Request: fold
Amino acid sequence: MNLEDVKTIEDLFDLWRRERPDYTYFSNDGILVEGLWKQANPKIAFLLKESNDSFCDIRGSGWGPNGNSPKFWRNLNQWTYITTECLNNRECILDKTIAEKEKKLEAVAYINIKKKAECRSDYESSDPDIHNYIDRDWEFLNRQIEIIAPDVLFCCG
Reply:
């Protein structure tokens, strides 16, 4: 199947899982809250290395400072706020930026390079390991980004 013919994340993930049966726990990432994503201006996505803990299916709900990595979620909230304000020609206010970090992050997309989730909090893949996943899954990752179609893509980690 030609990946350009794949139009939805679900169809892409189904194909990806068939092509990579060794990915026992698959990172079902993407748009957090679809309805809020559609209203977002700009649409912001975060490209990350891999999931943490058993954090393998995050779509459909917002995540915030009480999640499995409070500092991580707070940082994403602040980046989202600052980017949104700047790209909409609004002034960023420090107090508001600080307050934003305590909210749920909902209107963004979240994409892990490594879809084989290992569900470990004590483990972080090495750079060569992540590069292997990029080489192996680049066409799938690229198509996921194309389907999500963010205005801004932060490359994190």
The chain is about 40% helix and 10% strand.
